[in-house]
Design brief:
heterodimer, A: 122 residues, mainly beta, B: 107 residues, four-stranded antiparallel sheet
């Protein structure tokens, strides 16, 4: 069974830092690029960042560029998101998601974890 | 960035109804479009990919169509389990972008 289990969320003050983790199981981790997608309370979905299977390619949303760092450890089948200089507008449920790696064509996000809540407030 | 615009934002319908949700991209994305269903307190679930391909295990009452900039999600006969919020998403290029969502309510 595919599982993506996020952890590391919590309450943090503006300007603070937090590191999210995602433990993957039930599939071949290196066959997938991994992504973080967030959802502010009562709002829609916002893509945050993606990392390719071998960490060669990394992408960020403009809203987090320079503040967030995505990484992965294939040996541990884990994905991470280091979040620095947090702002109130970063408050959201952060989902760990996967996209299968394909040689030629783009692929969709096909599986989502249950999310970890990050609250930025003083 | 490619903007995705869904309409309507809210839709009220009854069990057995046929409904359509539309999604427009601000530039051509070929057929690199996905539809997701999200129920309250749950993670989104992939329904449709490549604009019209049904994800494994998704009921056949769901269908998708379109290419280029205009896309639709159709539910042929609404079931009680279908009342949820639906999002389109382009995966043609980064940044990946989602529509604002369409909430489907029971009339």
């Amino acid at each position: 069974e595919v599982q993506l289990v996020e952890s590391g969320g919590g309450l943090v003050k503006p300007g603070g830092s937090l590191r999210l983790s995602c433990a993957a199981s039930g599939f071949t981790f290196t066959d997938y690029s991994m992504n973080w997608v967030r959802q502010a309370p009562g709002k829609g979905l916002e893509w945050v960042s993606s990392i390719s299977d071998s960490s060669t390619y990394i992408f960020y949303a403009d809203s987090v560029k320079g503040r967030f760092t995505i990484s992965r450890d294939n040996a541990k089948k884990s994905l991470y998101l280091q979040m620095n200089s947090l702002r109130a507008e970063d408050t959201a449920l952060y989902y760990c998601t996967r996209k299968v790696v394909a040689a030629v064509s783009p692929t969709p996000i096909d599986y989502w974890g249950q999310g970890t809540l990050v609250t930025v407030a003083s | 960035d490619i903007q995705m615009t869904q309409s309507p934002s809210t839709l009220s319908a009854s069990v057995g109804d046929r409904i359509t949700i539309t999604c427009r991209a601000s530039q051509s994305i070929s057929n690199w479009l996905a539809w997701y269903q999200q129920k309250p307190g749950k993670a989104p679930k992939l329904l449709i990919y490549e604009a019209s391909s049904l994800e494994s295990g998704v009921p056949s009452r769901f269908s998708g169509s379109g290419s280029g900039t205009d896309f639709t999600l159709t539910i042929s006969s609404l079931q009680p389990d279908d009342f949820a919020t639906y999002y389109c998403q382009q995966y043609y290029t980064y940044p990946l972008t989602f529509g604002q969502g369409a909430r489907l309510d029971i009339k």
